[in-house]
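// run 5 | inverse folding | seed 20
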């Protein structure tokens, strides 16, 4: 037997043992019972008459909560019917298809009891007892009260039923064995509702409940370890997902939201942009489907909570000198191609064109989003409060890898910014990956 085979067998054995222990532990404890109590932090502070958030009608409240949870984003395939499932999620380990959660009896969740539904959404266990893949963010939804989750179920029962059987997951061995997720759960999943911090205000707790729970901001913004669990002790400190970088969401003044006021953060989540930044890619979708629908009280609560996080200890490096070769080239390219929109002072246009000056996203440790935006261009989210979102043109046809690297290095090290240069290799790799995934054509 080769060393390689033996290592694999050993790894397999360890995984099976962990999964076995977890399975036994789970079943000894039994599923979480439905909790009838309504904790304080579930109610939105919004007192506007007719507010969906505080409606006594569970269907109306459920619509608001489903928007907060952004269920539609994953559970709708491109061009498909809402909630009918089928969207392929690339987990980094393999593909999982989001389920049909319309009230269809055969292929949806029409015949499900409250307990079966809660067991899936907050415990991560499917109807027939097998664990779900954590591509469904049950580890976040576990924090949500049963009343809120059941209101979502009441709302989902009113959407049109669609008969649509979604494909089985494509996972390589051993991840194709669902039971392996018992092991994942044992290591990374803490199954309990949000526990309020009595030392903090009601508003802060409401914000933490939304950010960590239904809003599942952590799913994209918290760093993950090599098997996809949240890295301990680094909540919301930035993570790279599928060619995008979701920046740190703490009060760190360099790579977090330290320069943003609470009002500016609320504005970004409501309209998709503010003086600092304009949301693109996955965040534009999150704003469009989800955060634009939050009422102001809930948005403010989230902002208050995020602004209280001390964040990472990433320190500002020294900026590159203006006579650095990449900086000289970058400055020329910027003046010729970018300054018309982003302005020669790097300040952009409030709510329309991303500002580069002092921006955390621009100085992020990982430049994936920036490279991607320059190669592909993008379009910010058109929202109710900001119906005319502007677009960023693509430059893949115009700028070489060296030119792209130089202009990004320049914007990361000008107007008081300081961050590691973007290398030609990074741009070349991004281009190859985007071509492989057929996002970028050959030109
Ligand atoms: C980030 C993507 C994502 C979001 C957001 C999401 N889901 Fe899911 N959900 C999935 C995936 C993927 C599966 C299938 C997992 C699997 O096959 O193991 C799933 C499975 C489920 C299931 C189990 C269905 C079945 O047939 O087993 C239910 C119920 C469900 N989701 C409800 C919800 C609700 C309610 C929300 C909003 C509060 C929501 N989901 C938000 C990705 C998501
Ligand atoms: C599906 C993944 C995803 C989810 C869920 C998500 N984000 Fe983001 N977020 C991103 C990405 C990617 C970016 C970077 C977008 C860009 O470069 O324009 C971002 C950017 C941001 C920014 C701007 C940061 C900056 O420095 O420019 C804020 C603020 C933000 N997100 C807040 C939130 C909050 C609050 C939530 C939860 C309600 C959330 N996000 C949920 C992916 C996500
Ligand atoms: C026609 C106007 C226009 C021009 C020219 C333009 N941009 Fe943009 N840019 C935008 C807009 C609008 C946004 C915000 C909306 C979006 O991201 O889609 C943006 C966003 C960006 C972002 C932010 C992406 C993120 O992750 O937050 C970067 C980086 C960027 N531009 C770089 C450049 C560079 C480099 C050039 C020149 C090579 C350039 N832009 C030229 C309009 C423009």
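// decoded
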């Amino acid at each position: 037997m080769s060393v390689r085979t033996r290592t694999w067998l050993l790894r397999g054995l360890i995984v099976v043992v962990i999964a076995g222990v977890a399975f036994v532990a789970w079943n000894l404890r039994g599923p979480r019972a439905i909790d009838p109590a309504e904790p304080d932090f579930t109610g939105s502070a919004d007192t506007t008459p007719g507010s969906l958030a505080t409606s006594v009608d569970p269907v109306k409240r459920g619509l608001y909560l489903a928007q907060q949870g952004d269920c539609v984003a994953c559970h709708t395939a491109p061009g498909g019917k809402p909630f009918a499932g089928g969207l392929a999620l690339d987990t980094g380990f393999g593909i999982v298809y989001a389920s049909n959660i319309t009230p269809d009896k055969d292929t949806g969740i029409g015949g499900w009891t409250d307990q079966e539904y809660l067991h899936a959404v907050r415990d991560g266990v499917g109807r027939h007892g097998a664990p779900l893949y954590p591509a469904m963010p049950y580890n976040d939804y576990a924090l949500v009260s049963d009343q809120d989750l059941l209101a979502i179920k009441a709302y989902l029962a009113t959407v049109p039923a669609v008969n649509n059987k979604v494909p089985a997951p494509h996972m390589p061995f051993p991840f194709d064995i669902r039971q392996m997720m018992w092991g994942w759960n044992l290591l990374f999943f803490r199954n309990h509702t949000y526990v309020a911090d009595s030392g903090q205000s009601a508003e802060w707790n409401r914000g933490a409940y939304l950010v960590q729970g239904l809003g599942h901001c952590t799913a994209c913004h918290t760093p993950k370890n090599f098997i996809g669990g949240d890295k301990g002790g680094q909540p919301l400190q930035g993570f790279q997902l599928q060619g995008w970088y979701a920046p740190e969401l703490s009060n760190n003044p360099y790579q977090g939201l330290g320069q943003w006021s609470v009002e500016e953060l609320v504005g970004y989540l409501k309209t998709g942009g503010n003086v600092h930044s304009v949301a693109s890619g996955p965040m534009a979708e999150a704003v469009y489907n989800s955060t634009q629908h939050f009422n102001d009280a809930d948005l403010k609560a989230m902002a208050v909570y995020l602004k209280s996080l001390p964040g990472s200890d990433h320190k500002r490096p020294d900026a590159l000198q203006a006579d650095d070769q990449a900086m000289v080239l970058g400055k020329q390219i910027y003046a010729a191609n970018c300054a018309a929109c982003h302005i020669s002072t790097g300040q952009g246009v409030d709510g329309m064109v991303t500002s580069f000056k002092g921006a955390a996203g621009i100085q992020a440790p990982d430049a994936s989003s920036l490279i991607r935006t320059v190669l592909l261009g993008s379009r910010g989210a058109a929202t109710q409060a900001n119906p005319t979102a502007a677009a960023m043109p693509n430059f893949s046809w115009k700028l070489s890898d060296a030119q792209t690297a130089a202009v990004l290095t320049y914007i990361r090290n000008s107007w008081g910014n300081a961050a590691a240069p973007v290398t030609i290799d990074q741009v070349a790799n991004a281009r190859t990956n985007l071509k492989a995934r057929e996002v970028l054509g050959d030109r």
